[in-house]
C-alpha cells in the first residue's frame, strides 16, 4: 500500500492514496516543521479552504440543529429578546474522507484551516461567541468526510411585537439562520430532524412568559444578489397575566369600589365626600403613571391595560362629578325656598294693610295691561302662544321659550337625594357590564 504522511498541526490521519478530489493542484497547508506520526496521512495535502466542497458541482447540503440554553430577557420597549444558543452544523466534504470508521474531535483552532459555512443570524442586533476559557467551538471529523461544527452564541434578536392586548398578549418571535454569500446554487440548509432539531426551548422558565409552542420552517430569502436558503425557528410566547392582575387590575378595581362609598354619605358631609373623591382620583392617576413606566414612552400602542385603567378612572371621576351635581342641586333648592317663605310673610302683612277695594282695583288694572300689552317676558312656566293679538315673531319667541323651559325641566333635579339613591345601583351595574365586555373581548377575540 502506498501511503503519504500529512498532519493537522501534529494530528495525523491515515488515508488511502486514491482520493476523491477533482481540484487542480493548490498550495499545500503542510508545514515542513510539523512532525508526522507513523501510520497517518496528511489531510491538508491539496486542500483549499477557500473553495467549498463540490466546487463547480452540486450544492453543499448543511444540516442544522439548535440547543436553546436560555432566553435571558424579552424587552417590550426595544422589541427584542436575548438568547444563548448552541448552533450545530453538519456537512460532508469529500476531500476529507479517510480510512476507518472512527471520528476525531479536532482542536477548535483548526477551524481556520477548513471551509465552513458563512451562516449568520438574521435580524440580530448584537452577538458574541463565548470564549471562556477558550473559544466555545467544536470541530469533529468523521471518516466519510462529514464535519460537525458547533458554536455557542449569545445574540440579541429583533422581535416585532403587537402590544395592543398587553398584558393578555401572545407574541410570536423568530430565530432565522441564513447564508450570507452562498446562494441556493452553492448551499442548501435543512433541519437535521425537523422540529426535533431544536432542544431546550420546551424546558425554559421565563419570568413573564410561557412558551406555548414552536415549530421549524425552511424557506428562501430573495435578495437582489440572488436567492439564499433560510431556516426559521418560530416560537409563541404567552404572557403570564397573574402578576398584572395582582399589581394593577385588583388595586384599580378596589379604588373604583372605594369611590362608591361616598354614595352612602349624606350630602351635607362636604369634607368627607370631597376627600374620598379627590383621594381616589389622585391614587388612580399614580397607578396609571406607574403602569406605563415599564414601557418606552415612544411606544404609542393603546394597550389593554390602558383601556382598563381609563375605564376605572372614568368611573372614579364620575363619582366625584355625581357629588358635585347632587350638592349643587341641593343648594339651589334650599336657596329657592328662602325667598318663597319671605315673600309669603310680606304678602300677609300687605293683605292686612290693604283693603279689598284696592286689591280689586289693582287686579283689574293689571288684567287690562296684560290684554293691551302682549310683551313676552321670561317666566318660570309655559305661556299660551295661541293669543290672536300676538304678532308672528312674538309667537315664535313664545314657542322657543316654552321649549327651552321644557328642556331645562328635563335636567332639573326635583329631589337631589335621589341622585345618590340611583348611583348606588347604576354605578356598580355599569361597571360590571363594562368588565364583562372587556374581559370577553381581550381574552377570546
TrEMBL record:
PROSITE patterns, A to Z = NEUROTR_ION_CHANNEL (PS00236)
Alphabetized InterPro entries for the sequence? GABAA/Glycine_rcpt, GABAAp_rcpt, GABAAR_pi_TM, Neur_chan_lig-bd, Neur_chan_lig-bd_sf, Neur_channel, Neuro-gated_channel_TM_sf, Neuro_actylchol_rec
User: Which Gene Ontology CC terms are recorded?
Assistant: apical plasma membrane; chloride channel complex; synaptic membrane
Q: Signal peptide: which range, if any?
A: 1-24
What is the organism field in this record?
Oxyruncus cristatus
Q: Which CDD domains match?
A: LGIC_TM_GABAAR_pi
| Family (UniProt) | Belongs to the ligand-gated ion channel (TC 1.A.9) family. Gamma-aminobutyric acid receptor (TC 1.A.9.5) subfamily. GABRP sub-subfamily.
Membrane spanning segments where?
241-263, 275-295, 307-325, 425-444
Q: For the Neurotransmitter-gated ion-channel ligand-binding domain, which residue ranges apply?
A: 41-240
Q: Tell me the GO molecular function terms.
A: GABA-A receptor activity; GABA-gated chloride ion channel activity
Tell me the PANTHER family matching this sequence: NEUROTRANSMITTER GATED ION CHANNEL
How this chain assembles, per its entry, is:
Heteropentamer, formed by a combination of alpha (GABRA1-6), beta (GABRB1-3), gamma (GABRG1-3), delta (GABRD), epsilon (GABRE), rho (GABRR1-3), pi (GABRP) and theta (GABRQ) chains, each subunit exhibiting distinct physiological and pharmacological properties.
Q: Where is the Neurotransmitter-gated ion-channel transmembrane domain?
A: 248-354
Q: What is this protein called?
A: Gamma-aminobutyric acid receptor subunit pi
So what does this one do? Pi subunit of the heteropentameric ligand-gated chloride channel gated by gamma-aminobutyric acid (GABA). GABA-gated chloride channels, also named GABA(A) receptors (GABAAR), consist of five subunits arranged around a central pore and contain GABA active binding site(s) located at the alpha and beta subunit interfaces. When activated by GABA, GABAARs selectively allow the flow of chloride anions across the cell membrane down their electrochemical gradient. Pi-containing GABAARs are mostly located in peripheral tissues.
| Keyword Transport attributed | yes
Keyword Signal attributed: yes
Q: Which reaction does it catalyse?
A: chloride(in) = chloride(out)
Q: Where in the cell is it found?
A: Apical cell membrane; Synaptic cell membrane
Which terms are listed as keywords in the entry? Cell membrane, Chloride, Chloride channel, Disulfide bond, Glycoprotein, Ion channel, Ion transport, Membrane, Signal, Synapse, Transmembrane, Transmembrane helix, Transport
Q: What is the lineage of its organism?
A: Eukaryota, Metazoa, Chordata, Craniata, Vertebrata
Topological type in the membrane:
Multi-pass membrane protein
Amino acid at each position: 500500500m502506498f501511503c503519504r504522511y500529512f498532519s493537522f498541526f501534529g494530528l495525523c490521519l491515515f488515508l488511502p492514496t486514491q482520493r476523491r478530489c477533482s481540484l487542480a493542484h493548490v498550495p499545500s497547508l503542510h508545514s515542513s516543521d510539523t512532525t508526522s506520526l507513523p501510520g497517518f496521512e496528511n489531510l491538508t495535502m491539496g486542500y483549499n479552504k477557500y473553495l467549498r466542497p463540490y466546487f463547480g458541482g452540486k450544492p453543499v447540503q448543511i444540516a442544522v440543529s439548535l440547543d436553546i440554553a436560555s432566553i435571558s430577557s424579552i424587552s417590550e420597549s426595544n422589541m427584542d429578546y436575548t438568547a444563548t444558543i448552541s448552533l450545530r452544523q453538519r456537512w460532508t466534504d469529500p476531500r476529507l474522507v479517510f480510512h476507518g470508521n472512527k471520528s476525531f474531535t479536532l482542536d477548535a483552532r483548526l477551524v481556520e484551516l477548513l471551509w465552513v459555512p458563512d451562516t449568520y443570524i438574521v435580524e440580530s442586533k448584537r452577538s458574541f461567541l463565548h470564549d471562556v476559557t477558550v473559544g466555545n467551538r467544536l470541530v469533529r471529523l468523521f471518516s466519510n468526510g462529514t464535519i460537525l461544527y458547533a458554536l455557542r452564541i449569545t445574540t440579541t434578536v429583533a422581535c416585532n411585537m403587537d402590544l395592543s392586548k398587553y398584558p393578555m398578549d401572545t407574541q410570536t418571535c423568530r430565530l432565522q439562520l441564513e447564508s450570507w454569500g452562498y446562494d441556493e446554487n452553492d448551499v442548501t440548509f435543512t433541519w437535521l430532524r425537523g422540529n426535533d432539531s431544536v432542544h431546550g426551548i420546551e424546558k425554559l422558565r421565563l419570568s413573564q412568559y410561557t412558551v406555548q409552542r414552536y415549530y421549524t420552517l425552511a424557506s428562501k430569502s430573495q435578495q437582489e444578489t440572488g436567492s439564499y436558503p433560510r431556516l426559521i425557528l418560530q416560537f409563541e410566547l404567552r404572557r403570564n397575566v397573574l402578576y398584572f392582575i395582582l399589581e394593577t387590575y385588583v388595586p384599580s378595581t378596589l379604588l373604583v369600589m372605594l369611590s362608591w362609598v361616598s354614595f352612602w354619605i349624606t350630602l351635607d358631609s362636604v369634607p368627607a365626600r370631597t376627600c374620598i373623591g379627590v383621594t381616589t382620583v389622585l391614587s388612580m392617576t399614580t397607578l396609571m403613571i406607574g403602569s406605563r413606566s415599564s414601557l418606552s414612552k415612544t411606544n404609542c400602542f393603546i394597550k389593554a391595560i390602558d383601556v382598563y385603567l381609563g375605564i376605572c378612572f372614568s368611573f372614579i371621576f364620575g363619582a366625584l362629578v355625581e357629588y358635585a351635581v347632587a350638592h349643587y342641586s341641593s343648594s339651589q333648592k334650599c336657596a329657592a325656598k328662602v325667598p318663597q317663605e319671605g315673600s309669603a310673610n310680606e304678602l300677609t302683612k300687605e293683605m292686612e294693610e290693604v283693603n279689598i277695594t284696592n286689591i280689586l282695583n289693582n287686579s283689574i288694572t293689571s288684567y287690562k295691561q296684560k290684554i293691551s300689552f302682549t310683551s313676552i317676558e321670561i317666566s318660570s312656566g309655559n305661556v299660551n302662544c295661541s293669543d290672536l293679538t300676538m304678532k308672528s315673531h312674538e309667537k315664535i319667541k313664545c314657542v322657543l321659550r316654552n321649549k327651552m323651559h321644557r328642556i331645562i325641566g328635563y335636567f332639573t333635579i326635583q329631589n337631589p337625594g335621589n341622585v345618590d339613591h340611583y348611583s348606588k345601583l347604576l354605578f356598580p351595574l355599569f361597571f360590571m357590564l363594562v368588565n364583562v365586555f372587556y374581559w370577553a373581548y381581550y381574552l377570546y377575540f
